[in-house]
Structure formats: C-alpha cells, structure tokens
C-alpha cells in the first residue's frame, strides 16, 4: 500500500513538472528589459524562443519573429531542441507511468509493470535534465551579456519563463527518482520474501535426506501397537 501511495505521489510530481515545462515553451518572458522614464515605464523589451517584442506604456506590443532557423544563434537552436525533447520525453514517461503503476489494471504481470514504471521514471529524469539544461543555457547567455562591460547592445534580465522551467525540471527529476526508488524497494522486498520461503523449504527437505525413512508420529505408532495387540488376541 505504501508503494502505491509513493507511486501516486511521484506521478503527481512528474505530471505537474511536465505541464510546467510544456507551458514554458510558448511563454513570452524568457528575457526582459525595460526603459524607465521619470514617472512611468516607457517601454518593455522581452523575448522568448520564437520572437522578440517591445511593449510601450499604452500596452501596445510590436513583435518580430525570428528569421530562418539556420540564421538563429546557436544557443536559441539548442534551447528549442532541448525543450521539445523534454516535452516528448515527459509525454512518453506519463504514458509508461500509467501503464506501470500498481493502481492501474493494465500492463501485465507485476514484474513487467515494475519495468515499465522504471522506464517512466528514467524518461522523466531525462526530461527534467533537458529542460534544466535549456533554461540554464539561456540564463547563462543573459547573465554573461549583462555583466560584460564590452557588450553595448540592449541588456536583458532573467524572465519569468526561466523560473517556471526550472521549477518544472525539479519536479520531473524528483518525481522520476521517487518512482524509480519505489519500484526498486518493492522488487527488493518481493525478492527477499521469495528467498526466505525457498530457504525454509530447502532446510525442511535437507533435514530428511533421501533414503532414510521419516520418523513416525506418536499417533501412528500407537495405532500400530494397538493393531499388534489385537493381532495376538
């Protein structure tokens, strides 16, 4: 029962992390910068993996999509690939988790369900690592440009999308690890119980070696004695 509760908790964590990672891709504010006037913010510059925009004080946004993928910076291409890979791995991990969890009625025997759940945990861990790498790479580029005194172009700060991606990555990694350890604990417990029963049966067999008759119980011997008495009568 405890293993089932642990699996459900791990599934909730991993699914929540996968949803956060999926919502990070279309989120606008991966990096943000603003120009402040004397009273109000005159303009806000922000960018994500697909476009760069500027929003004025009236709330009107003017956006420009990035050019061809071959003309993009290398770190944006890498972040796109890592985030898409993270979403795909999380989707397959959710499917495998539904099949391999003990609370579901599909997936075959307990051994096959345990293997499937372990594969789901590995997929979620890889998904979290991919998303974590993408967000960290993007943040490293922002901070390196911000603290570079020779960089004279527009400097940006970390946007809210990066923090959402980091949170989703942590949820996926933690849930995947919990899922793998819950399966390992359940398989270890079942294997130990089987070995103990096997050892007990083997000791019973070895206590009566082949070729030697087992001693008869008191009830059977008394029956034999009673039969002998009647025979002589």
Automatic annotation (TrEMBL):
PROSITE patterns: CLAUDIN (PS01346)
One Gene Ontology molecular-function label: structural molecule activity
Chief location: other
Membrane topology: Multi-pass membrane protein
Signal sequence coordinates: 1-23
One Pfam assignment: PMP22_Claudin
Location(s), subcellular: Cell junction, Tight junction; Cell membrane
Superkingdom, taxonomy of origin: Eukaryota
Family matches, as InterPro entries: Claudin, Claudin10, Claudin_CS, PMP22/EMP/MP20/Claudin
Record's keyword annotation contains Nuclease: no
Residue span of region Disordered: 201-233
Keywords: Cell junction, Cell membrane, Membrane, Signal, Tight junction, Transmembrane, Transmembrane helix
Any one GO cellular component localisation term in the record: plasma membrane
Transmembrane stretches, start-end: 75-99, 120-140, 160-184
Family: Belongs to the claudin family.
Protein role: Claudins function as major constituents of the tight junction complexes that regulate the permeability of epithelia.
Protein name: Claudin
Organism: Oncorhynchus kisutch (Coho salmon)
Encoding gene (name): CLDN10
């Amino acid at each position: 029962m405890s293993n089932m509760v642990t699996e459900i908790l791990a599934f909730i964590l991993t699914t929540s992390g996968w949803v956060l990672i999926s919502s990070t891709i279309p989120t606008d504010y991966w990096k943000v910068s603003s120009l402040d006037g004397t009273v109000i913010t005159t303009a806000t510059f922000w960018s994500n993996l697909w476009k760069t925009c500027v929003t004025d004080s009236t709330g009107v946004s003017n956006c420009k999509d990035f050019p061809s993928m071959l003309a993009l910076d290398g770190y944006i291409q890498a972040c796109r690939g890592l985030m898409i890979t993270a979403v795909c791995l999380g989707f397959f991990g959710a499917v495998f988790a539904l099949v391999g969890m003990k609370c579901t009625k599909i997936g075959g025997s307990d051994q096959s369900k345990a293997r499937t759940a372990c594969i789901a945990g590995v997929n979620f861990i890889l998904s979290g690592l991919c998303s974590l790498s993408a967000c960290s790479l993007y943040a490293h580029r922002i901070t390196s440009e911000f603290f570079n005194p020779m960089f004279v172009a527009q400097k940006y700060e970390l946007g809210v999308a990066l923090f959402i991606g980091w949170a989703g990555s942590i949820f996926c990694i933690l849930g995947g690890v919990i899922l793998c350890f819950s399966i390992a604990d359940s398989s270890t417990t079942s294997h130990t119980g089987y070995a103990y029963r096997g050892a007990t049966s083997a000791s019973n067999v070895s206590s009566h070696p082949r070729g030697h008759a087992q001693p008869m119980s008191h009830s059977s011997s008394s029956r034999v004695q009673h039969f002998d008495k009647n025979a002589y009568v």
